[in-house]
TrEMBL record:
<dbReference type="InterPro" id="IPR050256">
    <property type="entry name" value="Glycosyltransferase_2"/>
</dbReference>
<dbReference type="Pfam" id="PF00535">
    <property type="entry name" value="Glycos_transf_2"/>
</dbReference>
<feature type="domain" description="Glycosyltransferase 2-like">
    <location>
        <begin position="7"/>
        <end position="170"/>
    </location>
</feature>
<dbReference type="InterPro" id="IPR029044">
    <property type="entry name" value="Nucleotide-diphossugar_trans"/>
</dbReference>
<protein>
    <submittedName>
        <fullName>Glycosyl transferase family 2</fullName>
    </submittedName>
</protein>
<dbReference type="GO" id="GO:0016740">
    <property type="term" value="F:transferase activity"/>
</dbReference>
<keyword id="KW-0808">Transferase</keyword>
<dbReference type="InterPro" id="IPR001173">
    <property type="entry name" value="Glyco_trans_2-like"/>
</dbReference>
Length: 238
């Protein structure tokens, strides 16, 4: 049903959640999944190999970071015959059941990028998003909408989908190996005038959900300010 789609899952210590995420993806008719494990220290990878032996798995020999994980996955995708890539986190925070409506949005060819927004829905804080992260998300999103002259509901979601042509056009290898990667990629997408669609995505925050510390959140926030400055004054961020 979705043979032209590749689901990519960046994984780090997801043994408690990733099997359920994979099952939900498979139940929607997506058969092509590749996982990149960023040198996890738990048994998640072993469980995946045992339960889903046909899934493609990439393994980093050391922990390289969230951005580096995506780079490996997108390199794999570009060297394949797939038309679209959907990135789903393995920690269960986002809603895997939205892969199908996201895929249909891409199939219309109206959008070549689709992001799943935690902010369009009203339950982000209710479902566990820390209030300081919610405030930071809204503030930084407002700033970047002003900088880019856009109207996105958020710039910080990790549930995204792309036409393979977007991956081929943007030089994501020069972006950060860490969490700021997502923001750099989205700014490059806007800079290059790719069409972006959004879909509302309920989220669940738990102990298993990936999250950066308060200190790293501050570093991320300052990184956003830097990237916004670059967007305004550096012409080529492709």
């Amino acid at each position: 049903m979705y043979s032209e789609f590749l689901i990519v899952i960046p994984l780090y210590n997801g043994e408690k959640t990733v099997l359920e995420v994979i099952e939900k993806i498979l139940n929607q008719g997506f058969e092509n999944i590749v996982i990149c494990d960023d040198y996890s220290t738990d048994n998640g990878l072993k469980l995946i190999k045992k339960s889903f032996p046909k899934i493609n798995i990439l393994e980093h020999e050391q922990n390289l970071g969230y951005g580096a994980n995506q780079k490996s996955l997108y390199d794999f995708a570009k060297n394949s015959a797939f038309k679209y890539v959907i990135m789903v986190h393995g920690d269960g925070q986002y809603t895997p059941e939205l892969c199908r409506p996201i895929a249909e949005m891409l199939r219309t060819k109206i959008y070549v990028v689709v992001i799943a927004s935690r902010i369009i829905t009203s339950g982000a804080v209710k479902n566990g998003m820390p209030i300081y992260k919610y405030i930071a998300n809204r503030t930084l999103t407002l700033l970047q909408n002003l900088v880019t002259n856009s109207k996105l509901s958020e710039y910080h979601t990790g549930f995204r989908a792309y036409s393979i042509d977007v991956l081929k056009e943007i030089n994501y290898q020069k972006f950060s190996n860490n969490f700021i990667f997502d923001n750099q990629f989205l700014l490059a997408i806007i800079k290059n005038k790719f069409s972006i669609g959004e879909i509302s995505c309920p989220t669940i925050y738990s102990e298993e959900s990936s999250s950066i510390s308060f200190k790293n959140s501050l570093e991320y926030g300052f990184g956003i300010l830097k990237e916004s400055f670059n967007y305004l004054f550096i012409k080529d961020i492709k």
